[in-house]
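Entry 0007
Protein: LamG-like jellyroll fold domain-containing protein
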Amino acid sequence: MSRRARARVAALLAPLLLLPALPAPALAEEGAEVTSADYPAGDEFHGSPGRPGDFTFSSNGSEDVQSYFYALNDSSCVHEAVPDEPGGSVTVTLTPRLAGPNRIYARTVDASGGSSACVLVYSFLVAPPSDPVAYFAFDEGQGDHAADIIDPDRGLDLSESVEWVRGRVGSAENPNTNPAPRLEGTAVRTDGRTDGEIVADHSSVDTSGSFSVSTWVKLDRAVADHVAVAQEGAAQSAFHLGYQGDTGQWVFRMSPEDEHRGGPREWTAAASTTSADVGVWTHLLGTHDERTGEITLYVDGIEQDTATHPEPWNAQGPLAIGRALFQGTGEYHWPGAIDDVRVWDRLVVDETVSDSETDSEVWRLANRPIAAEGRWMLDEWDGTTVSDATDHGLEATLHGDPLTAWNLADNDITFSPAVRLNGDDEYIEAPGPALRTDRSFSVAAWVRLDETGDGADTTAVSQAGTHQSGFYLGYEGSTGAWVFKMASHDDAATPEGSGWTHASSSWTAQPGEWTHLTGVYDHTRGELVLYVNGSEASRAAVYHAWHADGPLRIGSAQHGGSNTDHWTGDIDDVHAYQGVLEAHSISSVYAGFFPTAQN
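Output (structure tokens):
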């Protein structure tokens, strides 16, 4: 285990070590006894949430026990295990989903149907979620080899035709090769031809057991089956994570056996509920539960489909990126980019694993780290060109008078210059789209509002569609509140309020005062969140999010097909990110910095 991984485990274990010692289980007379080599009782931590273990139930000396009824972290005792003979023992596989203390409750039933009480019979401690067994960040940006972060002595070999491109997550911090800040790192891209090979020098996981695999993908085109990640056997890959051509869906599927065979094969597949998007970074996660045989597909952190795979087998060949093995030949090549491939020897669970967490691991994979898509500091002093502080090169244009826009406004909180807009026809426009407004994104800006007088809406940041903007961050005239809002559709006939979602502050905006606004769209949770001066002000459910493919505007918005809602006052330091800004990152943005990349 790397030094970084050991430090992370130590940090995660620290709060759990402060937990009180587990009480000794109180066994019912003639009740069940439990033992486990995978998760021994005592005060030491073992395993991981999502990693299965075997637990053996025995009769505590009674020869009349016909069956055991049990439950994990639940006193219902509803699951039955039947020994081969009365009074015998039976072993079951259980998968803990919580870090820290876990408890097994059980009761016994005899031949006459009599039952002991359902009581606590076994307690054990589960370590925090384990690191992946293989993790390829693809942040090298050059060369013919990609390292495994978990074990730098292992890696992937890249064929000559594989390209390095901008990634979705990661970091690129070399000031010589990347002078402008970037929080996306690099990724690999294959063109879908047969000579685009990315193959590991090792097998990553036992595919007959519980495992999970995730990646960020972007399809350039979708014409057939395309596989982003697979693990090879002798003739077949055990699993495919990628795109299914005949249905146009994302898919996680597993094969029934490793042999050459003609005709149709009974693969097990879990597919997305909607069609896959081409040209859009999308997070895919597939899981296989050896205890139930269930495979599950998540897309952008949202569970899509499950299916039961009856015959898992262990593919002992290499992990392959951008292709799969079918009938002994490399097939289903990926046309597009692939980033951040991770493989675990456990389930990645879609729930929090401790009371101290607010986000599940599935959520974090799909929404963190964030990707900087643009930052306009608005500290120009003349002209109409407005610089983008990231390396996206989204230089914006001031539509207004430079003599009154620049050199008149100063942010007295961050002590930085700002732009002043007249509220009539002035605004700044960056070529777009800067953001995918139908995926998780975050925008932030410092604003100072002049008295509006007429109760009109006025927008600090937006991104235009044809008739409406995909989002509006600014001031709501009818309530006098700060607001982050979305139209339900890009429809000129849909009036505001009809299916719109508003996250509004519960207090009145104060004209003349510098205020920091952050708007977050959490696609996984289906929520809009408004932060004012770094604190959460409002949260609202979103049922219709769509992609506004027009320019990003500072100081105006698209409404009813027209550029309107012009800002009256000053605006400073506008940030735009793909992904969800959380409290720590918002504090960095508030202070005028790029947030640090976080896993």
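Curator remark: Residues 371-590 form a domain with the Jelly Rolls fold (CATH 2.60.120.200). The first strand starts at residue 33 and ends at 35.
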